[in-house]
Design goal:
Elements: H1 12-18, E1 35-38, E2 44-46, H2 48-62, E3 70-74, H3 80-90, E4 93-96, E5 117-120, H4 127-136, E6 140-144, E7 155-158, H5 164-181, H6 195-198
Parallel strand pairs: 3-4, 3-5, 5-6, 6-7
Antiparallel strand pairs: 1-2
Helix pairs in contact: 2-5, 3-5
Length: 202
């Protein structure tokens, strides 16, 4: 695993500080390729270089879509603040809390929403959204911890998708990268929001 900070979207120390690489004690067959080692306490540790690379690729992929064509789904309370701010900054729509099946597939529903790609923070609690996306054939980008399966997911971003600081850092980075690549920032210094802004206030 490379430790050269200049290769990363943020300094390596920032990734390590929020524990974006710390997984669970359970690992699925699919996620094994992203695991760097298993600690003595049984927790799997993901490769930070692969996490960083996947975040960069996810941002590049999402930047091909207009904000109105993307929908972010987040059932986890730990990610709601980050997703909300991400939505405010980028104009990308978000759906926090329980996702009722059919929002993407049933035009008769009051909250029916059309999208060309979705981003989910955890494939397990957000499984209804993934199933809907699969039915209509739109791509799914998902944050996956070591215990996640990759069924019906088109692009996996390996990371700790349960910790509030980890989710805050992911959405802080992806907001900046998306806005830069879409030409929403005249220069990188215009991105003035902080990582703390993305973190839950309590």
């Amino acid at each position: 695993m490379s430790t050269e900070p200049s290769q990363f979207l943020v300094p390596l120390e920032q990734y390590l500080k929020v524990g974006i690489h710390i997984g669970t004690k359970y690992k699925t067959k699919y996620m094994e390729s992203f695991i760097y080692k298993v600690r003595s306490d049984g927790l799997a540790v993901m490769d930070v270089q692969k996490i960083d690379r996947r975040i960069a690729l996810a941002a590049l992929f999402l930047s091909k879509y207009s904000p109105e064509d993307i929908l972010v789904i987040c059932r986890r309370d730990n990610g709601k603040r980050a997703v909300q701010l991400f939505s405010e900054l980028t104009g990308i729509r978000s759906f926090s809390g329980r996702y009722p099946p059919g929002i993407l597939t049933n035009p008769s529903l009051e909250d029916f929403t059309e999208a060309k790609v979705i981003l989910v923070t955890d494939p397990w609690p957000d499984k209804n959204a993934i199933q809907d996306a699969a039915r209509i054939g739109i791509p799914v980008v998902a944050l996956c911890d070591t215990n996640n399966e990759a069924n019906s997911i088109d692009f996996v971003v390996p990371c700790n998708n349960k910790g509030k600081r980890s989710l805050a850092l992911f959405f802080w980075i992806i907001s900046r990268e998306y806005m830069q690549q879409r030409g929403m920032l005249k220069n990188p210094n215009d991105y003035v929001v902080t990582l703390e802004d993305f973190s839950p206030q309590n």
